[in-house]
Amino acid sequence: MDTRPPGRTCVALAGRAVDPRVGEAMRTLAQHLLGKGYTVRVVADEALALEGAGVHAVPEPDLALDAGLIVAIGGDGTMLHAARMAAMADVPVLGINRGRLGFLADVGPEQMLQSLDDALGGRCQAERRMLLAAQVLADGRPIEALALNDVVVAKRETGRMVDVRTWVNGDYVNTHVGDGFIIATPTGSTAYALSCGGPIVHPSLDAVVLVPVCPHTLSDRPIVVPAGSVVEIELADRFESRAQVVCDGIVLCDLDPGVRLRIERAKVSATLLHPPGHDYYRILRSKLHWGRGTRDGQPPGA
Amino acid sequence: MDTRPPGRTCVALAGRAVDPRVGEAMRTLAQHLLGKGYTVRVVADEALALEGAGVHAVPEPDLALDAGLIVAIGGDGTMLHAARMAAMADVPVLGINRGRLGFLADVGPEQMLQSLDDALGGRCQAERRMLLAAQVLADGRPIEALALNDVVVAKRETGRMVDVRTWVNGDYVNTHVGDGFIIATPTGSTAYALSCGGPIVHPSLDAVVLVPVCPHTLSDRPIVVPAGSVVEIELADRFESRAQVVCDGIVLCDLDPGVRLRIERAKVSATLLHPPGHDYYRILRSKLHWGRGTRDGQPPGA
Amino acid sequence: MDTRPPGRTCVALAGRAVDPRVGEAMRTLAQHLLGKGYTVRVVADEALALEGAGVHAVPEPDLALDAGLIVAIGGDGTMLHAARMAAMADVPVLGINRGRLGFLADVGPEQMLQSLDDALGGRCQAERRMLLAAQVLADGRPIEALALNDVVVAKRETGRMVDVRTWVNGDYVNTHVGDGFIIATPTGSTAYALSCGGPIVHPSLDAVVLVPVCPHTLSDRPIVVPAGSVVEIELADRFESRAQVVCDGIVLCDLDPGVRLRIERAKVSATLLHPPGHDYYRILRSKLHWGRGTRDGQPPGA
Amino acid sequence: MDTRPPGRTCVALAGRAVDPRVGEAMRTLAQHLLGKGYTVRVVADEALALEGAGVHAVPEPDLALDAGLIVAIGGDGTMLHAARMAAMADVPVLGINRGRLGFLADVGPEQMLQSLDDALGGRCQAERRMLLAAQVLADGRPIEALALNDVVVAKRETGRMVDVRTWVNGDYVNTHVGDGFIIATPTGSTAYALSCGGPIVHPSLDAVVLVPVCPHTLSDRPIVVPAGSVVEIELADRFESRAQVVCDGIVLCDLDPGVRLRIERAKVSATLLHPPGHDYYRILRSKLHWGRGTRDGQPPGA
Description:
The structure is a homotetramer. Chain A starts with 9 loop residues before the first strand and ends in a 15-residue tail after the last helix. Chain A is built from 6 helices and 18 strands. In chain A, the strands form 2 sheets. In chain A, strands 1, 2, 3, 4, 5, 6, 7, 9, 10, 15 and 18 form an 11-stranded mixed sheet that branches. A 6-stranded antiparallel sheet of chain A has the order 14-13-11-8-16-17, with no helix packed on it. Chain A folds into 2 domains: 10-124 and 275-287, Probable inorganic polyphosphate/atp-NAD kinase, domain 1 (Rossmann fold, 3-Layer(aba) Sandwich), CATH 3.40.50; 131-267, Probable inorganic polyphosphate/atp-NAD kinase, domain 2 (Tumour Suppressor Smad4, Sandwich), CATH 2.60.200.30. By secondary structure, the first copy, chain A, is of the alpha/beta class. Chain A binds chain D through residues 16, 74-81, 100, 102-104, 149, 187-188, 190-192, 194-195, 218-219, 221, 248-250, 287-289, 292-302, and chain D through 16, 74-78, 80-81, 100, 102-104, 149-150, 187-188, 190-192, 194-195, 218-219, 221, 248-250, 287-289, 292-302.
């Protein structure tokens, strides 16, 4: 796939510039881009920390608009936020970490200029990642959000459990009693869902995972369903039970008993750019410390 | 062990009498006890719902005081509350469920009068269960609580993680990143801790279980340590991370970063009375649906 | 989908007729079918136990050939065997259990005649299930087998571990140290793979699950990949380590270190017939005892 | 505790001397010991590889006899074997790894001479570790073995399940259907049992863990019981089901259906010597890769 920005000469930088390491990386990237004749755009709030770097400050909703590329620098929060913006504007995103390999930010600081050139030159691997669209009807008015990782129904009161009723394509699945419930994309399968016992889902598989959080019933296990499924969720009315809907770690709204949360594949998807030679399983092995023994005591040859 | 109340002629009833099923059971128990010459005591709040039953209304702190027996009727909340009161007053407790076998309330409604007579006649099996004492020093002032099941450090903000640092007997154990952390007694090992991947700990074992909740690190597994251990916990200072200390499902206080939570075996313990023939493993098998196949597809003889 | 056998008037019965309950069901089914003008076919070995029932004895390879329907009666072994034969002959299969609901055999003995009529009348729901094809090259000669549930590489020496190297579509995944490795279809996801920590995969999802068995590395978690993937496996050369390849519970061959096992989607697939009103999640709830509480001790309203 | 060998001037070395790294370490240790006036003893089989090192070759059963110390060099198999011999002879054991920290061999090659001097000088921390004694009555003749890690009942036929019936102190616990069953000491809790979902049990806790291997029933969870418990196990008679009893990874015997396996705390225990400053939790953190993030995707401040 040719991922070259089609004649677009504007690159957007996303990151928390007040973090000195991030700010410095943004300055370096900006200088490199300006030297090549690109214009560089950052969100107004971050522009202050980049004074003198020659970047354009824009309101956040305009950051990705008509840009040829978004470069996101930082941790997962930054990446998730940038990827959702990029998906809505249909702009590819390149993720740069701050020294530790990330599932989404797989370019290290030392390769960032090379990878930027690869991205601008169309030499990166482009990968489509699905997003979820969550919708709650509150007082007849829809509240909506996108998620690249996951939509979570989380209990709000510590010490209490919630009863989460689920339907897939209109078929009742179960009433999950516990701490909450996760609907994760393949991207999100290596995030919170993994800590809750969910499987790793390869990004090329068109699927979502339903993962109960600390379920009361021990046989209440993760279920993987086609990505085209409509998942619906309601909180059962239980004494003092309250829950929230959380998309990519950001609270969307409370979920009152009897109100329906509807989750389906978003119409938009994100395009991640990976440096040439990208290998998903290598990242898995690195992030999960595979290939180094972790337990002891068996006689592997004495 | 002779579990006969030594010359004490007062029996305390604990339960939410406003629940019709519980109220009716309390009336039946009261009538039975009064007929045998016992006095019957209930908490003032519940006495209203038992008008005309001939019971004495007392303030809650006095309920167990000098009683020969506490009979608790209801679900786990009632049982836990009654058992903590019973432990403090050193009075045995008999647990009556509302039709579904419980780990703590193992007497069914149909056997309750027989079991009550067994308890009064010293024919029940008495079992000691340890409690935990949790203490937080806030502004130099200690906040304390007892727990029969567990002390939980739970994240307060949905969508965030907490970093929980743990020490056992002064030795640093780990920084557990995730949804929280559980310190459970053997009694609590079949409660919330079990849903979080903890083992079942036999009540006769003098131990506590440390269970991380949805840990970020997949090898962060439950640890069982001697009951005499002092467990200390601090929240690390992480952006927007907040947590609460929850004892037996009841919020004790917020846990601010840097404040030390100290958990050790309580000086008091609870005495549970079980009907003759009590069998812990039978309750396990029943509650966990053991002995009924749950998966399919292997050729067990075709 | 019209699942009526297109003008085929022969029905095959599969089951271990020597089992009295199975034999009796086969006689009842045969009588019903003969009365409606169908011819009935069984494998020669089973025909002895059905003497006088008016059935045709055929060699096993011919059982499904040109039949309009296979009716399988019995447990999972019978179902798996019948489904593989049915897949190869492209004949639909109806599964009848012996009194306990199965994932594959979802017709109870009391509904079997009604469901048989539904199957013959085209009123059943037909569902396609993928199979896996496993191939080992031993001395240049391929050894092959089909599996509806799973292909398992299992250690052969108790007390030893095996090192299983895996590739997906040519990309190296990991060296899994432990008791073995499972490649399961969605059908097999509720069989052995589930006991090893794998997720439930909905049958409509085109995927396979890779599940390490008792992995040494605690972060070595199940991975779900597209069904079109080619999975390759080799045993690493470790002291005294030996393994076998097992398809649907039947040993295919030894797997020597350095020999490549190749697993991919089979060219054929099985057509399962379900009675009208079939509901996958209802079967899940029933088989996994969902909807009945399993742990205790949290205060659900006292 | 004074762990100085009381006037014993003989030190035993255990290890597979044919492994060049191990052989070289054994030579270095022998030279060091001889220089200090100790006599040095090795098993006859290993002595060949140590020719000229000035060591005494003895039959294996005599290795530990009246020695002041056993130094074990190598992996877990060597350590387990040496620790069982040391326990029977009541001689302390010092474990030296080959470069990678082990739970039992916590002295690295570079500290081995210093630690040896610490051991001889009584400056090591001595720790008692319980062993299990397994006994099977076959044809009235007892077959017995000791285990420092675990006694495992393992299925013998790949592709089959075994039904393992368990009793603790005479009380029936459950029939565990699956791949097998583990009875582990605290020492063994970080070995095979950990891979099967068992908890970490602190070595100072007097307990054993019962862990089902890949159980068919998803709620069939590990149970921790007092170390003084008598655990009994029988194989149920299931079609083609066969099992073996394996102690510390070494096959003891077949377990036929109906034959009783009895496991209890051994009369002897092992004394492990740790270098000053030994910290169990530090070893846990190192072996289990704690303290390094393993998943991604949540917004930790981003």
